[in-house]
Amino acid sequence: MKRLMAVAFPVLLLPALCGCSGGGSPWQEVAAFEDDYSLEDLWVFGPDDVWAVGQTIRRFDGTDWRQQPTDAYAGFTAIWGFSPEDAWIAGGDTLLHWDGSGLTRTDLGAQGMQAATAIWGLAPDRLWIVGDDATVLHWDGSTWSRSNIPCSSNTSIFGFSEDDLWTQGTFGTCHYDGSTWEEVELEVWGGGGDVFGFSAGDVWVVAESAEAAHWDGAQWTTYENEDFVGELSSLWGAQSDDLWGVGTAGAIAHFDGRGWSEVTHQVIGSPFLRMFNAVHGSSAQEVWAVGTEMGANRNCSLVYRYQSD
User: Fold this and answer.
1) Looking at the DSSP assignment, which residues form a beta bridge with residue 96?
2) Alpha-carbon distance 77 to 37, whole Å?
């Protein structure tokens, strides 16, 4: 594979549309759980079926949040869903599969992974998992295979086909072309972060920093969001001109096809720290985010929701 180099990086300085947390924002806090320090990931099937994972597994039915019983405890970090009867949850050396009636467990440690962090799948028999090490696990419906990649401490994996996969993590971005994993050089700094996209020529990377990088199939463009109060670490969108990013300092930002604007952030000087770890939606009108808040006499996990007509 030809190495994807950052051959052109036009830097776009964009004004931020900032406001305090809440305060008229279309995003509103809808739940907080003091018995779960932080929610790390979520999956939204619809307004009446939302899963969130952290120390526990929680499911929203449109009215109430209920914990999903499991005999596994791994500090769950990732969830990927194909349907309300087919979802995968990972954390530590544990992978759980939901079949609509219960959870079954797979030992990822036996496959060489001790700290799973993210899941991506094309279909129930084509699933990929990354973790803290420089390893990608692949499930083909019957067996597991393991690949070593140049990037370690991965926090995200995303793709478009079996020969077009991306990972993002503390030590860089990697791409797979169907035969070889290679590291991609980007001018986005930080640690961890996320990779998300809409097509092979429409890929976004954030790395818990002030930058967001976009691949258009030919070159990378860096968006420098220095006016943001927070830094972005997770992405989800319904289409190319409707992309959401969430991250530190309670930051929630939106890309409209032209540039990024910050929609909300925590109150400057507030006696608490708010961090969003993941964002996901079922449509442009139904988007959720999860994370944590520490301080101000409250230490708990958070759930925020965006709804529009």
Assistant:
1) 89, 105
2) 13
Predicted model pTM: 0.90
State the Cα–Cα distance between residues 157 and 88, nearest whole angstrom: 14
What are the tokens at 187?
A: 């001018």
Widest pairwise Cα distance in the chain = 53
Of 63, 68, 21, 20, give the one whose Cα is nearest residue 42: 68
For the domain made up of 11-307, the CATH class stated in words is mainly beta
Could you state, in order of their start, the residue ranges of all structural domains in the chain? 11-307
Q: What is the 3-state secondary structure (H, E, C) of 20-66?
A: CCCCCCCEEEEEEECCCCCEEEEEEEECCEEEEEECCEEEECCCCEE
> pLDDT digit string (tens) for 148-180?
999 999 999 999 999 999 999 998 999 999 999
Mapping DSSP onto H, E and C, the string for 156-179 reads EEEEEECCEEEEEECCEEEEECCC
3-state DSSP assignment of residue 109:
helix
d(CA 294, CA 301): 9
**Would you say 280 and 291 are in contact if contact means Cβ atoms under 8 Å apart?**
no
Contacts with 176 (C-beta within 8 Å, 6 or more apart), sequence order: 136, 149, 159, 163, 164, 165, 166
Mean pLDDT across 269-285 = 94
Residue 256 one-letter amino acid: D
Contact at 8 Å (CB) between 113 and 106?
A: no
36: confidence class by pLDDT, cuts 50, 70, 90: confident
CB 245 within 8 Å of CB 211: no
Contact by Cβ (8 Å): 27, 252: yes
Please tell me the number of Cα atoms within 13 Å of 234 on its side-chain side: 24
